[in-house]
Amino acid sequence: PSPVSPGLMWLQQGEGGGSLRHTCEQGDGLSRYGWLMHDGENFGVQEIRDGGLFLKTEFVKRPGGEHGGDWSWRVTARMEGTGGPAPLLSLFFYVATDGQGTLEPHLENKSRLAAVTGTSEELGDFTLTFLRPTAENGEDPKYASYNYLDAASPGLHRLTEVVRSSLSNRFVFAPPGKPRRRFFAVDTFRGLPGAVGEPPRGRLLLHQVTLEPSGTVEVTFESGSVADRPGRLAGGALSAALAQHMAAFEQRFEETFGLGRKGFPASQRRFAQAALSDMLGGMGYFHGRSLVQSPLQEHPVPAPEAALFTAVPSRSFFPRGFLWDEGFHQLLLARWDPALSCEVIAHWLDLMNAEGWIPREQILGEEARAKVPPEFLLQHSETANPPTLLLALQRLLPDAPLPYLRRLFPRLRAWYDWYNRTQAGPLPLTFRWRGRDPHPERFLNPKTLASGLDDYPRASHPSPDERHLDLRCWMALASRVLGEVAERLGEPSGPYREMEQALSDNRLLEQLHWAQELGAFADYGNHSSAVALRWQRVVPAAPGRPPPDPQLVREVREAPRPRFVGALGYVSLFPLLLQLLRPDSPRLPTVLATMRNERQLWTPFGLRSLARDSPLYMQRNTQHDPPYWRGPIWVNINYLALRALHGYAGADGPQREQAAELYRELRHNLVANLYRQYTESGFLWEQYNDSTGRGQGCHPFAGWSALVVLVMAEDY
């Protein structure tokens, strides 16, 4: 909860100071960064390209002692493709406390921080040593200037500001026999504006190394409880450990996913390794309180303190836990490291309140809060999110330890009961997402954030009479998985199996959700398809005052009435996606034809989220709300489609060959496009353009887009 945090910042020196890099920010415009190898436990290799600067960060952990052992870090820097003298580079290695722990600096020549000794609750005694830089070969000494900062820390989320406000350009880089150059370095920290009088949260010690690339710097962390250390993990010993771990990673990756056996070339195998590694390298431990609005309370209240160990969708844009994303993340991680996956799922289920509700977005601690617009901080206790963690749990079930499942089961039961109690629909065996946008006049189609498919078109006029197809399918899956868990534990599974049977009944599913006039499965609700956004002039607040800007408001040209919602897209596919349709279902040929129709969902890059001939295809939802789930290609739903097609291709039924053909084409299209976009742009993306295949939205997005690894492996 209050860790000792080491970290790295860098600065390419230039006129006016250049850009200080620290936390992953989309606005930094880096052309590429991400983990190329990371096993989630022992080592990692990351490459960063910032303009002409190439940085490589590598770490190795060596277990031992009673506090996790030692670790070492190597940063290699070089300039690529620049004529003339390379700009100076400053690397800032820091260590900060945040509420507990002590740090003691050890200086050489008053300005070089050679080492830090310290102690903390979870690490015991430790020593951090900053070794002198060398040339890239790791042996020849490298000329560098050193600066040092010792400052009170106002919190980890403000360390960038502390360093930026401490920089001064009064320093001179003076290598023997070469021109002298001024550079910016940490000098004196005089406090942050607006923070006067606030008690410090901890202490920051920072070691700045300024050099002319190329060069290499190593940092070692040595635990005080390690006895019989075989020697410092640096130089040749660090290189040997890295080589050993890299070879083990390659072998384990091939044993787990078999991409070499499947004939993928080395370049595509490296792409898949990077996708997995970037997900593992983005994992984090978060601690804090959610801000919760309950219908039982007038004002929002902070929830109890919570801890969460989780993967995240995007290091730059979504560096926190999202409930429905996490189930997809764990489908991949459960294959790589089942024990790690079990731990993450347990953390998520421990976030449950007494009613059985889990907040859909976890904004825990100041660092997480600093990344979230204020309007999104609040979590509403009647709002659900798809129970995708059950997809991952189903995958882990055959080998999951029984004591683990026994501890999980009461929470799973409470979660399942909460959905049934709070998200029930207007008729028996129907379901309705709660918490749709309460001001329909402001939106072309009020959002349903609870579903995870945010702006996907639903009934135009939210009402208690809605029946949501995707939620009904998720509840069928939940009933199936709870039945399987109960059976493994020898607990009564009857109620779950009965519910699974009722929700999987194809005749009842058609009765409630088959729209004959649309030729598709659909939501049902109070709906008008004749809606549009139009500009409305706003009357001035007082005579003589300038008029406010016009506003986009919704115009309803035909009154809504209870009916099926004409929006063909991902929601229409859910009976297939979660394999509720029987292989001999008379509706299956129509659903498959819809998928393959280029005027509807098929593209050369994957399945689009909303049919091209749908009224709201690529339509903005508000003036400031571009289309999100209204056309672009999303990897998580394409993964579910491939998983389902693979299942139907392997089952006896009249559509077997058609499913197999669709599967082969869709898998080829998705993998080829994600690889091509990664090669061209350097990143996995949040979504992909359905007309060009280009990556769009936020990046890097090694969340569910990393499911491409399982698609390549054909591991469903």
TrEMBL record:
One of its GO terms (molecular function) is Glc3Man9GlcNAc2 oligosaccharide glucosidase activity. InterPro entries: 6-hairpin_glycosidase_sf, 6hp_glycosidase-like_sf, Glyco_hydro_63_C, Glyco_hydro_63N, Glyco_hydro_63N_sf, Glycoside_hydrolase_63. Residues 4-137 form the Glycosyl hydrolase family 63 N-terminal domain. Pathway: Glycan metabolism; N-glycan degradation. Its main location: endoplasmic reticulum. The keyword Transmembrane applies. GO terms for biological process: oligosaccharide metabolic process; protein N-linked glycosylation. The keyword Translocase does not apply. It is a single-pass type II membrane protein. It is an enzyme of class 3 (hydrolase). Its EC number is 3.2.1.106. It comes from the Eukaryota. Keywords: Endoplasmic reticulum, Glycoprotein, Glycosidase, Hydrolase, Membrane, Signal-anchor, Transmembrane, Transmembrane helix. GO terms for cellular component: endoplasmic reticulum membrane. It catalyses: N(4)-(alpha-D-Glc-(1->2)-alpha-D-Glc-(1->3)-alpha-D-Glc-(1->3)-alpha-D-Man-(1->2)-alpha-D-Man-(1->2)-alpha-D-Man-(1->3)-[alpha-D-Man-(1->2)-alpha-D-Man-(1->3)-[alpha-D-Man-(1->2)-alpha-D-Man-(1->6)]-alpha-D-Man-(1->6)]-beta-D-Man-(1->4)-beta-D-GlcNAc-(1->4)-beta-D-GlcNAc)-L-asparaginyl-[protein] + H2O = N(4)-(alpha-D-Glc-(1->3)-alpha-D-Glc-(1->3)-alpha-D-Man-(1->2)-alpha-D-Man-(1->2)-alpha-D-Man-(1->3)-[alpha-D-Man-(1->2)-alpha-D-Man-(1->3)-[alpha-D-Man-(1->2)-alpha-D-Man-(1->6)]-alpha-D-Man-(1->6)]-beta-D-Man-(1->4)-beta-D-GlcNAc-(1->4)-beta-D-GlcNAc)-L-asparaginyl-[protein] + beta-D-glucose. PANTHER family: MANNOSYL-OLIGOSACCHARIDE GLUCOSIDASE. Cleaves the distal alpha 1,2-linked glucose residue from the Glc(3)Man(9)GlcNAc(2) oligosaccharide precursor. Belongs to the glycosyl hydrolase 63 family. This is Mannosyl-oligosaccharide glucosidase. It comes from Phaetusa simplex (large-billed tern).
